[in-house]
Specification:
- This protein has a single domain, classed as Oxidoreductase, molybdopterin-binding domain (Sulfite Oxidase, Chain A, domain 2, Alpha-Beta Complex), CATH 3.90.420.10.
- The longest helix is centred in the middle third of the chain and has 8 residues.
- The strands form 2 sheets. Strands 3, 4, 7, 8, 9, 11 and 12 form a 7-stranded mixed sheet that branches.
- It is of the alpha+beta class.
- It is 12% helix and 21% strand.
- The radius of gyration is 19 Å and the shape is globular.
- The protein has 7 helices and 12 strands.
- Bound molecules: ligand MTE.
- Ligand MTE binds next to loops.
């Protein structure tokens, strides 16, 4: 892991909990390499020349990313998409993802369950660009100009009943193109959850494009979650099913490693996860390591969502 100790936020390596404590089924998966059961090992950041911020509208920039946009080549070639393998370098393998036809099932506690094609869904929503920070629990980050639509629009289309308290999101699981599905112990398909209040929050976004192009396959084409105040693993890719449910759904990582991951996964530099200190982050595409900020710097928009909950590590794992 990249460690740069000249700044005050840098912790010594010993401050991070030893990896050996982190993986509850580690022995069984040892043969699979360091990425097994808990995200991959971080590669060194490559030092590059300073990046100039491209012109994006004030509307797109209204959530003030405060950092330069990540070069597109980094965002497209440094990915987590375990269905295609455990390395960061799955972009070639992901090109096999079939996008046509793509349908999304919306059901559970809704007035009338329905299945909609991706193309038809896009005709019903207002698309926009939002430049957001994107912080992975592995302590690296990007800044991405996403295209897509507010998640609240999708909730309104779905017409949930009063019994709907949570949303459960499920990614595609296609054995014919996704070798990662053969990895044992992972509770495929990849699935995530949000509360209704989180889904209605103005930051919650559904991504369908980035850098003004359709979402690359490796980034979760054709449709994914974008939840910038939470660790990146909450932002499930290549969605095929959205279910409105009454009780809190167990998430993919919660089921895989309950000692490491919980339902909320809000970014907080004060709570290390078992495998990583979360105090700082490597800015991909630069040689910078910077301090991480609570809620990834979006507290003004989202902290109120959690005001009634115990402010302990559960909210941040
Ligand atoms: N969604 C699916 N279906 N499968 C995955 O492995 N990885 C998650 C999240 N969504 C993942 C996923 C993790 S760990 C991260 S950090 C982000 O996707 C990475 O998104 P990016 O590759 O577009 O940066």
């Amino acid at each position: 892991m990249f460690v740069h100790r000249s700044r005050e936020w840098d912790l010594p390596e010993t401050a991070a909990t030893p990896e050996s404590l982190a993986l509850n089924r580690r022995a069984a998966l040892a043969a699979m390499g360091s990425a097994a059961l808990g995200f991959g090992t971080i590669a060194e950041a490559s030092a590059q020349t300073p990046i100039t911020m491209p012109a994006y509208s004030a509307q797109a920039m209204r959530f003030a990313p405060g950092r330069a946009i990540t070069p597109i080549k980094n965002a497209e070639t440094y990915n987590n998409f375990y269905e295609f393998g455990l390395s960061k370098d799955i972009w070639r393998a992901a090109q096999k993802l079939p996008l046509e036809p793509w349908t999304i099932r919306i059901d559970g506690q809704v007035e009338k369950p329905f299945t909609i094609s991706f193309d038809d869904l896009m005709k019903k929503v207002k698309t926009e660009t939002r430049v957001y920070r994107h912080r992975c629990v592995e302590a690296w980050s990007l800044v991405i100009p996403w295209q897509g639509f507010a998640m609240s629009e999708l909730v309104k289309l779905a017409k949930p009943t009063a019994r709907a308290k949570y949303l459960k999101f499920t990614s595609l699981a296609d054995h014919s193109v996704m070798p990662g599905l053969n990895i044992p112990f992972f509770p495929w398909p990849y699935h995530e959850g949000l509360t209704m209040a989180e889904a209605m929050n103005e930051l919650a976004f559904i991504g369908t494009g980035m850098y003004h192009q359709p979402l690359p396959k490796q980034d979760g084409a054709p449709i994914r979650l974008v939840l910038p105040w939470k660790y990146g693993f909450k932002s499930a890719k290549s969605l095929v099913h959205i279910e409105f449910v009454e009780t809190q759904p167990k998430t993919f990582w919660q089921q895989t490693s309950p000692d490491m991951y919980g339902f909320w996964a809000n970014v907080n530099p004060k709570f290390p996860t078992l495998r990583w200190s979360q105090a700082r982050e490597r800015v991909i595409g630069t040689d910078q390591v910077i301090p991480t900020v609570i809620y990834n710097g979006y507290a003004q928009y989202v902290a109120s969502l959690y005001a009634g909950l115990p402010q302990n590590k559960k909210l941040f794992m």
